[in-house]
Design brief:
The protein is of the alpha+beta class. It has helices at 2-17, 28-35, 47-61, 65-78, 88-97, 156-162, 166-171, 174-177, 193-201, 203-206, 245-248, 270-286, 314-321, 383-390, 441-456, 467-476, 502-514, 541-555, 562-578, 585-602, and strands at 37-39, 42-46, 103-107, 114-115, 135-136, 139-140, 148-152, 185-186, 212-218, 234-240, 255-260, 289-293, 299-303, 305-312, 340-343, 346-349, 437-439, 485-487, 490-492, 583-584. Strand 3 and strand 4 form a beta hairpin. Mean pLDDT is 88; it is low at 1-24.
Length: 603
Amino acid sequence: MFDVLDDIISEDADEDAVGGPSSNDQYDDLFAALRSELYPGVSSFSSLNFLFKLMHLKVLNKWTNKSFNELLKLLKLAFPKIDLVESHYEAKKLMTKMGLGYSSIHVCKNDCALFWKENSLKDTCPVCSESRWKLQSGKRSGKNVPHKVLRYFPVGPRLKRLFATLKTAKLMRWHSTGKSKDNDVMRHPVDGKSWQEFDKRHPQFAGDVRNVRLDLAADGFNPFGNMSLSYSMWPVVLTTYNLPPWICMKAEYLMLSLLIPGPQSPGKDMDVFLRPLIDELKELWVHGLDTRDAASENSVFRMRAALLWTINDFPARSSLSGWSGQGYRACPTCNEDTPSMRVIEKTAFFGHRRFLPTNHHWWSNLQFDGRTERKCPPRRFSTTDILEQFRRVKTGIPGKHHNYGGVKRKRGDDELNWRKKSIFYELPYWATIELKHNLDVMHIEKNVCDSLLGTLLADPYKSKDTDNARRDLAKLGIRHELHLFEDGNKLMKPATDYTFSEANRRKFCRFIRSVKFPDGFASNLSKNVTQNDSRLLGLKSHDCHVIMQRLLPVGCRSLVNKNIWSTIVELCTFFKQLCASTVNVSDMVEAQKQLVLILCKLE
């Protein structure tokens, strides 16, 4: 802690030497608390050290501010000579001086705009003219209370702190010194093509290995747990990819940058909330920050930062990228060439045969959709093509007000599935990035696992083998043995090879119930098996991860025929390859070819 404070003070001292404003006075209280004993005769704890540990316990155990204040009063009463702050408010003021604070930015109740910068002094929204403050009986209450508050945690000071101590300053160079020397091996994003192409396009940025590469992730959650209250709060987290792979994903190195309030998800208005972060990222790219590097004898360098990509699930990707994940053109990669068709109550995506070699016998097979395949694989759209599509996209009004941004607007055919041009394109380098938005494999694996288990176990809520699916087969005129038929007054569904019989369902569920894992490897899956051994309920992402890669290939081997089992094993093997800590490029190229065959078998 002394090293961090000394680095911050020395930076300010350098500013004073060149005529800059002095801010050393703000650290006097910190140094006084750091050098003072917590209690006369106790040298193992300083006042500041004890306070920070106490605040950490408050966060870990979810103490309320009131309980924390009462604890401080009790400590003062029990130990009259203790050197400690009086309240939680004073403790937060000390933490803010350490760069651990945040900015509270008021938001329009309809998510139209932020009351920030040019709008900071306004009392009404510049878009929908709604009041900034909560009103009681049509009048403002005695104390101004905003409808919504966005919490913004500045990124620059925390990036500077990574270089303030010798250990982390050395680790911030790992992406240059520790990357794989084998071009066929990938164990970190630095070994990927997108990173390498970015360095080629921006050699000045890549010239200093201390410049920071970031990744952004966002998703919604309900802070009220399992309560019936529907509420969606969205944290936006940044990951520092300069660090080695076994460190960069640890919780203590993840940086919370935004905490977007609910109760509704931001949706198409995500750009409104991202404005403070994007402005800081532009500043970090263009001008950078003077930063003291502890690994270079405390020399000062100009630190710059770049956002390389985002990682999200599919719905969050739609909010960030601007490409809608619904409709006939839901695939952002296939773009306007997305193969889709309307079936009963949903849109189906097919056409995996087009990715096979043109001489493959499945091109002429009528069992897929009743027709032979004649279309080539979708085009690969370049950056120029995407920017040309943006020129045809109309600028919408932000917000959810029923008279402004909340009015549903029908997109024109020339707009495709674009709802907006993402705010990320304001970053000078964003258009040149080859891989802008990534999908989180854990979300995909969970969705695939839920659908696969639901179909195998004939789960009435999660199975894809529904009555409507059988009616779709009849409309397409394929797989006649699976069509629904009438037996008297009943509508009967023929049995299939890809669902377990009732006896086999019990065998599989008992197998899941009986599996024992080493401590910390997986949760107790027996709790997810229903009492009648017929369904699996409440599976989390990691549960699905373990089932897909460890249990499903073994558990269903004797319960379905060989063709079904081999396809399931191939799918589980693909996810196992994809989730490996070290990936061989040649293996993934082959896995991509095999995935096309797997999808065709499943189709």
